[in-house]
Amino acid sequence: MKVFKFGGASVKDAQSLKNIANILANYQHDKLIVVVSAMGKMTNAFEWLINSYCYSPDKIKESLNVIVDFHNKILWELFPDKGQQVYVAVNELLFQLEEVLDSNYANDYDKAYDSIAGFGEMISTTIISHYLSSVGVKNDWLDARKVIQTNSDYRQAKIDWETTEELISKGNYNSITVSQGFIGSDSDGNMTTLGREGSDFSAAIFGYCTNAENVTIWKDVPGVLNADPKHFPDAVKIDKMSYREAIELSYYGATVIHPKTLKPLENKLIPLCVKSFLNPDNEGTIIQKSESYDSLVPSYIFIENQILVSISPKDFSFIAEDNLSFIFAKFAEAKIKINLTQNSALSFSVCFKNEEKKVEKLFQALENSFEVKYNDKVTILTIRHFTDEIIEKMTAEKTVFIEQKSRNSARFVLR
């Protein structure tokens, strides 16, 4: 068994779907589960529809038309005969979507989100499955909501692993199976979503539950690179890395693979491959157990649009457990994800994404007991497997506010 995952960039238009069909045609004799995301930027379009549904009902029709028109354009290019069954199947899903929009979820944003957002994956996989069949690639379509069982924590649903493994293991995977990323369902049959990197996680779930030989995530890059090409035009591909290294990179802000995707694969030592759908014959990157390759190439991670906030008690008391407990509680209430911290006897410094409303809420919560200072427009730079020469080069002619070093990583808050 193998598991493939194709993201939005790989299914952004009709030509992209033809490319996927060409790739999958080489695996017709394998047991293969193909997990697919919503097409192109459709997740953003569905989020606009959700916001319209919850906050601006007068814009529902406009936002829904964007979704309908996008998918119709792809259908017309792939299936010139509008009498084909795929039109009936897609229209049925759109009818179900309209039924949700007629329901009373608008006062519960998270439930509304999960009731609507997953239709992007349902429609994309329906179109792909029918197109594969039309070009002679035999496949079965699987509704992920029937096999991936979760709790009802909408937008961040937790997997019921025992039930999910039992349901997936019962499947008949004699041909290519096309299913959805990002979605599952709770015990009441309500659609749920799995949160950030949900489709990658779905692929890992299928891989874990079928004891897959490997899981491959297909991207528009040649594999895992040691830096973002927009900062490093000479970024190089890392051929092999360990699960641990991939998790570390992700923790420091790299958009490699989310740790929740890696963990179930690591538990069963299932290799994760990252390959290019533009050059499918190239090797890509393999993420596996061995750490022997991790220090061969330094990696650079930039997190931009950050704000560095220094928090000091007004009574000059020490930054101790009670102060930190209060401060962290206020960060949680403001729903702020912390990217870096550093503390001294009298001050606690923290760096996070600069989102105006969240920053304002945090400052209001702290202003009575703490003096708050900040530097905005800063960047966090993390260098894995650094040398002194690399640090000197990367920080030259920059203002460095914070510097942290461990055995394998150096981190800087700089401008």
Write the layout of secondary structure elements.
Elements: E1 2-6, H1 14-24, E2 32-36, H2 42-55, H3 60-78, H4 85-101, H5 109-116, H6 119-134, E3 139-141, H7 161-169, E4 176-180, E5 183-185, E6 191-193, H8 198-209, E7 214-219, E8 240-242, H9 243-251, H10 259-267, E9 272-276, E10 285-288, E11 299-313, H11 321-333, E12 338-343, E13 348-353, H12 356-366, E14 370-384, H13 388-395, E15 400-405, E16 409-414
Task: Compose a concise summary of this entry.
Helices cover 38% and strands 23% of the residues.
The side-by-side strand order for the widest beta sheet comes to: 3-4-2-1-7-9-10-8
What structural class results from the helix and strand content?
Answer: alpha/beta
Task: Indicate the radius of gyration in whole angstroms.
Answer: 23 Å
CATH topology of the largest domain: Carbamate kinase
User: What is the count of structural domains?
Assistant: 2
- Going by CATH, the architecture of the largest domain would be 3-Layer(aba) Sandwich
The helix content is 25-40%
| Main CATH class of the largest domain | Alpha Beta
> Can you summarize the main beta sheet?
8 strands, mixed
Overall form? globular
Mean pLDDT: 94
Query: Strand-and-helix sequence, N→C?
Result: EHEHHHHHEHEEEHEEHHEEEHEEHEHEE
Q: Could you tell me the number of beta strands?
A: 16
CATH superfamily of the largest domain, please? Acetylglutamate kinase-like
Distance between the termini: 48 Å
Low-confidence stretches: none
